[in-house]
Amino acid sequence: MARGFQLTFAISLLFLLLGFCRGSTVGVCYGRNADDLPTPDKVAQLVQQHNIKYLRIYDSNIQVLKAFANTGVELMIGVPNSDLLPFSQFQSNAETWLKNSILPYYPATKITYITVGAEVTEIPGNTSKLVVPAMQNVLAALKKAGLQKRIKVSTTHSLGVLSRSFPPSAGAFNSSFAFFLKPMLEFLAENQSPFMIDIYPYYAYRDSSTNVSLDYALFQSSSEVIDPNTGLLYTNMFDAQIDALYFALMALNFRTIKVMVTETGWPSKGSPKETAATPDNAQTYNTNLIRHVINDTGTPAKAGQELDVYIFSLFNENRKPGLESERNWGLFYPDQTSVYNLDLTGKGAVDMTPDSNVTSLNGTTWCIASTKASEKDLQSALDWACGPGNVDCSAIQPSQPCFEPDTLLSHASFAFNSYYQQNGASDIACSFGGKGVKVDKNPSYDNCLYMTAGANKTAASSNTTAISSTSSSARNVAFTWTTSFLLVTFLSILLNIEGSVKSSILI
Q1: How do residues 189-236 score in pLDDT, each as one tens digit?
Q2: Residues 122, 190, 263, 404: which is the catalytic one?
Q3: Under 8 Å CB-to-CB from 299, ≥6 apart: which residues?
Q4: How far is CA 239 from the centre of its chain?
Q5: Which residues are CB-contacts of 135 (< 8 A; sequence separation ≥ 6)?
Q6: Is the pLDDT of residue 475 over 80?
Q7: Residue 13's closest CA among 486, 372, 502?
């Protein structure tokens, strides 16, 4: 009996430890508004082939749910707006739907989110008033099935839910939606569900190119937009829009709700006037987006915070109405060939421009901290590199070769380069949310020798244990201590169990 309790407790600790290590994720939206798409079983094969772990669908299509059984892919499924009325009227309707459309395929098909309605504030009429009652009935059905902790319930929004998004610190919800937003936000906070938002910098650029630069929309801006109220620096529109939403939530005192991006992307083709809708721009946006997200850099107002993102979309959809761009958001053509090259893991280097890889004559490059980065951003990136990034930062400790000059810029440069070289000297390894810069001039000085590709350690230090910088934040210290404690506890319990089992055998 005691051993059973110990094993249960140990497993619980392991799951808690794994939860600490999750990090931000990137998924893809699987829209099916087309008449030439491959069958769901072929789509499942394509998704697995490209190592896509998270997928959003817009309904609960049985063939799709069957196709993704035992694939390990986590699905976000949807209750369409057309079903909001019956779902909001009677809980029995939600229970019947769950019983017939979800439970027969779960848990073989991993379902983690249910979106009840989509962008309802964009729909004329009183549709939005149906959302919260429908969400409550879906949650009640999940509770009846004992799944309320495994499947989260939310609804998606367009950025139009905000009346103001610039500067980000002035972000505010549209007061005309107050009757819907207040109970909806209370529902999300109470049930620890995310606020789901669809964000498209492409539209902001297309509709206001005189005010928004293309580079700013594509994560390529070399200049910064400063929020006059907070002093926070923004180098891309995506972060600015996310922070506008966070500030809007904080203004209503909903500080615990996390944001999830359920749609974002860039079209690869458009009408004659949509000159920015090109394969190159789509590749640039999505590549930079993925790298930005998986680095866990967060946003200027939420540095280091995880952010889950879904790219729109898996396929071009030929039945969508509107301008040409509406039918060309896909990563793949219906024949399953790629519209453009995209590394969905974000771990590889995808050259976006001919001069994207800056090298010296002998091919060696280094990574240093940008002089344009704020001290707050540099400190956050330095803490990450010397902590979870597993960089040996002993050389920048007092009395060590790279401690002088004792400046944040110098210490961050050393740590950035070490991480860069240890991780293949790829573009993404020098990103640090735009705070890293590749150079072809060796930044080494005096006895402080910067690592080069292929080296196992710097000549400045022989200590192979990663040591946090003296200014590491309490958050990273707590993270390291907690995970270490949980791991040691987990292992000791398992050893206890093993010892007990051996003893009982000997007896």
Answers
A1: 999 999 999 999 999 999 988 889 999 999 998 788 999 999 999 999
A2: 263
A3: 239, 242, 243, 246, 305, 307
A4: 12
A5: 116, 153, 154, 155, 184, 187
A6: no
A7: 486
pLDDT band at 464; cut points 50, 70, 90: very low
| More confident call, 22 vs 296 | 296
Measured CA to CA, the distance from residue 68 to residue 110 in angstroms comes to: 8
Cα distance between residue 58 and residue 36, in whole Å: 18
Q: Could you tell me what percentage of the chain is helix, strand and coil, using 3-state DSSP and rounding each to the nearest 5? A: 40, 15, 45
Residue type, 251: A
Q: In this structure, what DSSP letter does residue 315 have?
A: B
- Is the pLDDT higher at 428 or at 284? 284
Closest CA to 149 of 174, 117, 113, 115: 113
Q: What are phi and psi of 464, to 5 degrees?
A: -95, 5
Can 119 be counted among the known catalytic residues?
Answer: yes
Amino acid letter at 229?
A: N
Rounded Cα gap, residues 319 and 250, in angstroms: 39
Place of tokens 């999505």: 286
Choose, from 119, 306, 326, 375, the residue flagged as catalytic.
119
